[in-house]
Each structure stands twice: as C-alpha cells, then as structure tokens.
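Q:
My hope is that you can spare some time for a protein that puzzles me. I hope you can help me see how the letters and the tokens relate. Thank you; the sequence and its tokens follow:
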Amino acid sequence: MKSRRLFVPIACMFTTLLGMGAANAEVRLPNVLSSHAVLQRDSPIHIWGWSNPGETVTVRFHDQTRSAGASNLGIWSLWLMPERAGGPYTLTAQGNAAGEPPVTLSDLLVGDVWLASGQSNMEMPLNGFPGNAVLKNGAQEIAQANLPTVRLLRIEKKSADYPLTDVSATWTECTPQTAAEFSAVAYFFGREINAREHVPIGLIDSTWGGTPVESWISMDTLGADAGLMPVFASWAKFSDPLSNSDLLIAAEKREDEAAAQAHQPAPKHDWHPSPLSWKPASLYNGMIAPEVPYTIKGVIWYQGETNSEPKRAPMYAKLFPTLIADWRSKWNEGNFPFLFVQISNYDAPAENWGTVRDAQRRTLAVTNTGMAVTLDIGEADNVHPPDKQTVGARLALAARATVYSEPQLAYSGPLFRTVTTEGSSMRVWFDHAANGLAFHGPQLEGFEIAGADGKFVPATAKIDGSTVIIEAQGVTEPKAVRYGWATFTNANLFNKENLPASTFTSE
C-alpha cells in the first residue's frame, strides 16, 4: 500500500496553528478519531494529528506502539499494522514534552468502516424529515436501534472553498437516540452487514439534500478535465441571482411569522437550495476531505435527482464515474467498493430521471461497483420513498455478493446486455436473469421501441426464458429499445429472485 500524505491548504494550516497556539500545544487528534470509533480491520490504520512543531508523538493501541515526529507546521502522521476485528480497545497519543498528558480514546472497535454520502434520500434519517417524509415503521425501527457494535459518525453540513482537515462531529454508539437522526439507508445497510458478518461496523453519514454530484468532487479533479467545464458554466448561471438569496430567505421568514401570528397555515415557498451547497467542489472540501485520511472499507452513495434537469442530465454519465475515480485517488486505498442506489420512480415531468438512471447503470462498467435498483418502491407524489429498508437491504446484498465472499448470492435485478432484431420485433438479452424473468401485474410494461426516425413509442412485450421480445404496431424496422425511461414509470420486470430490472436504452 502506498503511503498517503496529508494535503493541508495554507489557509487551513494557518487556522490550525492559530488554534493550537504558538507554543506548548498539547497533542491533538482530529474528531474523526474519537472515542467509540471503529477502525478499519485488516488494513494499515492511519493515526494523525497536531502537536508542537518537531515534537515526537507516541501512539499506543492494543499491542502496538508507534512514534512519529511532527513537521515544522506541527502535523504528525503514522500507521499502525493491520488488526483483526475486535475490541473494545484504548488508544493513547502522547507528546514528549515534559508533563504533557496523553490524549486517550476509549471504547474503540476494529471492524469495517463504510462512508455513506449523497443527497436527501441518503440523508433522510430514521425519524424522517419533519412535514414531508416519514420512514416506514419509523417508530418501531428507532426503538429497536440498540446495536452495541455499530458506531455512527454524522458529519455536519458544511460548504468550504478549500479542503478542510477536521469536523466538529465525533463517533457515537448506535442507540435509539443517535440512530433517530442518522441516515436510514446507511443504518439499514450497516445493521444487515453487522448481523451477517459478525464484525463491528462504523458508518459515516456525510450527506446534504438537494445537492448536485459536482459539489462532491474535488476541485483539482474538476479543473483537470476540459470536458467538465460545463459544470462551471452551470454554476455561473445558477449563482447569478444568489446576491439576493439572503433577502429572499428573510422575506419568507417574515411571511411565516405573519401567518403564525394570524393563526393561519404557513405559506408555501418555492424550494431553493442552500446556495453554497451547489458550488463545484464545495461539499468535497467541507464534508469529504476531512475523512480522506481515515481508512475505510468502501462507500455507499445515493444521489442523482438534483442532476436530472434536461440540460444537466446528460453530464451525469461523465460526472458520476469521475466522482468515483476522484474519491478512490484521494483515499489511495485502491479501487475500494463503491455501491450506489439508482434513483427511484417519481412524477417530475420537467426532469429527466431516465437519463440519470441509465447513466448510473452504465457506471457499473467501473470496476468494483454495485447498484441497487429502486424503481419498484418509488411513489409518484413522494420524492422521498418511505421504504428505506429495502434500499439498505439491496445495498447489503451487493456488498455480501461482491465484498463479503458470497459470490453465488443473487444481488442484482436484470441488467441490459444486448438486443437483437428479429423482423419487426426485437429481443432483449439480460444479465442476472439465468433463472428466468417475471413481471408483477396483469401484463409486462415499461418497454418502448423506436424505428429509423428515432422516436420511441410504447411497445408490447413478452417474456421468452431469460429474454424479452418486444414490438409495436407501425414500427416495421426497429432500431432501438428502452425500458423504464419515464421519470415515473410503470415498468415491472423482475428476475426470478424478485429483484427489479434497471432502466436502460440500447442506443
């Protein structure tokens, strides 16, 4: 494994040094290294922090002792040898200044650490979003959320112009109180892996609703690819009216207060994002960069709705793989598992969810990725489907099959492989359909076919073993087929393992 350097921007270094003081600074660890944390098993464990410049810092953990010297900026870093799953353990970090007390972390476990990120469907906690999103069986799930070997780290929302080196949050045990405010998808995923693998699980919740993928990609990666320049043009167009955003928020607040004083219902306001959360690289800087030095097992991701505007959606096929490559390069742990959720089913006619869903499907070409399809649990009038249990379970299926040595486990619904033409009909071939296909409902729906004019029309479809044959009246020379393309679709194809097929187009 290659060593990793801590890249600390000058402004952030200056802030850190000011906070420590010019002299006699005690050893300090970042908050992502706190009591109750889970440290990644079977991998070198990175421990780092700050102290007096030039000071020698000694770390003791389990049966290991390692020392490192701080740089002239007071930054130190060392690696512990890999550990097997276990704990609880104590870690101490102590400088060599006379009389300096050690920093002590207690109740540390060694297991698997998963970073959960994305927008509101990953952010949605067990107790839901007040007023507009309720989790299925939420109260019961919260009451049962006593999991001693699952630990939670919920990163605060923060936008920044440069990569930060620390966060204010610290690790907690998983209890009904802490789980209630934590990502439901991440919780259900972690609960499943914890129960099946019998190892401690650490979950990092770094999410922000209504945010685009480009906010989560580092600036050096965005700026290095000329093909990503439309991202900056889009931000420039979006940011033009932001000079009045504070006035708009203040006006809405006054309207709310006036309605409350008049004992009237609160007025409805148009949704508008937090301005800086849409800025390219801003959330990478504020909410991902501080975790990059922390050794992890992999990532689970649920995002894409915000990138579904017709003018923006075509860029997702380039941006999403870029994010995966960016994060893997920053962590420098190789191609760690990156599992993601395909955005669901929602009636948003002005948006293009089909394009985004298909871009997500095509991202499976990136090594060591897996996708959970959720077309069957979406709701026409609810952008936050309440069934997050199924989402977490399908992500866990992908992890069990591709990460945790259950290769025979069915973990994916039918995925488009190829299409062949048979006269006026087309035959679609699928992966993950070896045992056959099925549909829910009176008939198979969701397929469209296009002729030489490129215009898609609804098609009739029938299952033939592990393939589907489709045709449409008036289309005598079919050229392309697509499935589940509408933003809200009645698509209902499954494999015999009852996992739904993904949106696709053969174009």
